Amino acid sequence: MAELEAPAEQNNEPDYKRLHAYSLVRNTDMDDEMLSEAVDTAVTACDKFPENMESAAQMLKQTMDTKFGPSWHAVIGEGFGFEITYEVKNLLYMFHAGTYSICLWKCA
Fold first, then answer.
1. 3-class secondary structure for 44-106?
2. Contact in structure between 61 and 68 (CB atoms under 8 Å)
3. Can you say how many angstroms the Cα of residue 97 is from the centroid of all Cα atoms in its chain?
4. Phi-psi region of 97 (alpha: psi -120 to 50; beta: other; left: phi over 0)
């Protein structure tokens, strides 16, 4: 009786997703403590709601409002452009998991 070999496991994930499975901060002017908290919260939100970026953005905004005062704004998604006015030392633009862009800023 011949042994059947298990088919090789195929990974259908695109190469760019595998290469950028980490977070990459593209632009920021936040201090280190705020930046660390914002990145951690953004990654947690995206991991908690992988299919619903609106909920992830809402979680990120509410967490930042609670910890650092009101009027934070968050956009999470793929393929968007933006032009914003923000308070100095309160901007984060980053990439996460290869395809998601996250823009977080505070303005009064």
1. HHHHHCCCCHHHHHHHHHHHHHHHHCCCEEEEEECCCCCCCCCCCCCEEEEEECCCEEEEEEE
2. no
3. 8
4. left
pLDDT at 13: 56
Q: What is the pLDDT of residue 3?
A: 55
Tens digits of per-residue pLDDT, 57-101?
Answer: 999 999 999 999 999 999 999 988 889 999 999 999 999 987 889
In angstroms, the CA 21 to CA 98 distance is 6
Contact between 36 and 6 under an 8 Å Cβ cutoff? The reply is no
Measured in degrees and rounded to the nearest 5, phi and psi for residue 103 equal: -120, 125
Q: Collapse the DSSP code of 8 into the 3-class scheme (helix H, G, I; strand E, B; otherwise coil) and give the result.
A: coil
- Assign 30 a pLDDT band (cuts: 50, 70, 90): very high
Amino acid of residue 27: N
